[in-house]
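Quarterly update from the structural biology core.
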Amino acid sequence: MLQPVQLFKILSDETRLAIIMLLRESGELCVCDICEATSELQPKVSRHMAILRESGLVLDRREGKWIHYRLSPHMPAWAAENITVTWQCMREDVRQWLSASPSSSC
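Predicted structure, tokenized:
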């Protein structure tokens, strides 16, 4: 079970925080969309996604050669609430990240 200290350690990394905020804004994103929005390379994003998946914060699904991620509805309510409050504070930044990235190449 995810503990508060774990959540804050996970989200202390700027890339992982950005990924969680992007997923909170968009609902579901493909790895290529996350790479575009964060300006990170696919191997780095995949490494961060593995950490987020192992923590139970995100779920994935495969569609052909693409993997799509979304926030897990099974995360503890306190964690979801922290993510929502953080997203409310960062909402404009997150929307700029999404609008600055080219349309999906998936």
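The chain has one domain: 4-99.
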